[in-house]
Amino acid sequence: QLQASGGGLAQPGGSLRLSCAGSRGILLMGWYRQAPGKERELVASFSGSTNTVYADSVKGRFTISTNAAKDTLYLQMNSLKPEDTAIYYCKGFSYGRNYWGQGTQVTVSS
Question: So what's the pLDDT on residue 18?
């Protein structure tokens, strides 16, 4: 129901844009990431209809957004750092259930 894309290899200081296409009826909520040996953590999410929440580590560098139809979620990632390397997951919600995308690998390395 959620299909994430856009990951890849970027150099430090570079940019990537992640996309997550959701099936009809799923409320797209945010992006999480999981680095090797670490727990999954929140990267950015919507809080209410207009507010956004960002992890301190990505504030000022990452931007979460949706398209007008609200069926695609984006994460614009600028000024990437090696510590941003992780698998990125999008999260959605519908009828009391959480949905997760399959994950897309982001690797930041020179």
Answer: 98
